[in-house]
Design goal:
By secondary structure, the chain is of the alpha/beta class. The chain has 2 domains: 133 residues, Periplasmic binding protein-like II (D-Maltodextrin-Binding Protein, domain 2, 3-Layer(aba) Sandwich); 94 residues, D-Maltodextrin-Binding Protein, domain 2, CATH 3.40.190. Strands 1, 2, 3, 4, 5, 6, 7, 8, 9, 10 and 11 form an 11-stranded mixed β-sheet that branches. Helix 1 links the parallel strand 3 and strand 4. The longest helix has 19 residues. The chain is elongated and about 55 Å long.
Length: 242
């Protein structure tokens, strides 16, 4: 689904307290339901101040479903999954379906929030033309620590690198410690642009394209998962019409 053409006017009340950013949809009446989310902390898509593209979609989804939403942010995306799976948070976003194999208490909102495209970034002076899952390990990959889908796909590589801060991945690449950086397209491009990094090229086409979902603790399924899915479908349909 395309979200690039989706422009929504949001009226947001933001309150910051002890590392928690509380975002409530101002001017809307709610039925007493409040959900606390965390996210995967992807540059350009999910930000600590709630300004990322996915953050805005989740807030609008909750507003339409007449649910108050709050956000707590962690440095590692796996922390969001663990806290949600334990019931200490209500949910997390956006994650691949593969997380359901490890975090058994999570249930997806049955409508994808987006598609994630994973690509390889390489030094401009290398002769690597394209990358496929079958030979990623041969290229000594580096990828963000705490990304469950990448850990499952690349963690078996004999030589690989993981760091908690995605910006450090490209430093490993430029220092010739890693052969490629595996990252999500928008997040990787955002880092290159904001850090002004040069001498790095993105290899196309993406070697993995998968849908990602908002996940809730099973105590909210199916009542709230279906309710949020309806709101998310409305957002996507309106966005595609513009």
């Amino acid at each position: 689904m395309k979200f690039g053409k989706l422009f929504i006017v949001l009226f947001i009340l933001t309150i910051s307290t002890e590392g928690m950013v509380v975002l409530a949809n101002e001017g809307q009446s709610h039925d007493g339901v409040t959900l606390t989310f965390s996210h995967d902390n992807t540059p350009g898509l999910s930000h600590r101040d709630g300004s990322g593209a996915h953050d805005k979609i989740v807030r609008e989804m909750c507003r339409r479903a007449r649910i108050t939403c709050k956000f707590v942010f962690f440095d590692l995306s796996v922390q969001a999954l663990r806290q949600s799976n334990a019931g200490q948070l209500d949910g997390a976003y956006p994650f691949f379906a593969v997380v359901e194999e490890t975090f058994l208490n999570l249930r997806p909102v049955p409508e994808s929030i987006d598609e994630r495209k994973f690509v390889a970034f390489a030094r401009a002076d290398t002769k690597i033309a394209k990358v496929e899952w079958s030979h990623v390990c041969d290229l000594h990959p580096a990828f963000p620590r705490g990304w469950e889908a990448l850990r499952q796909g690349l963690g078996h590589c004999e030589t690989h690198f993981t760091v908690p801060d995605p910006t450090e991945l490209f430093e490993l690449l430029l220092e010739h410690k890693a052969g490629i950086v595996v990252a999500e397209v928008e997040g990787g491009q955002h880092i290159l642009k904001t850090k002004g990094l040069s001498g790095i090229r993105m290899l196309e086409p993406p070697f993995s394209v998968d849908e990602v979902f908002v996940y809730l603790h099973q105590k909210h399924s199916p009542t709230l998962t279906e309710r949020l899915a309806k709101a998310l479908r409305e957002i996507k349909e309106e966005g595609n019409q513009n």
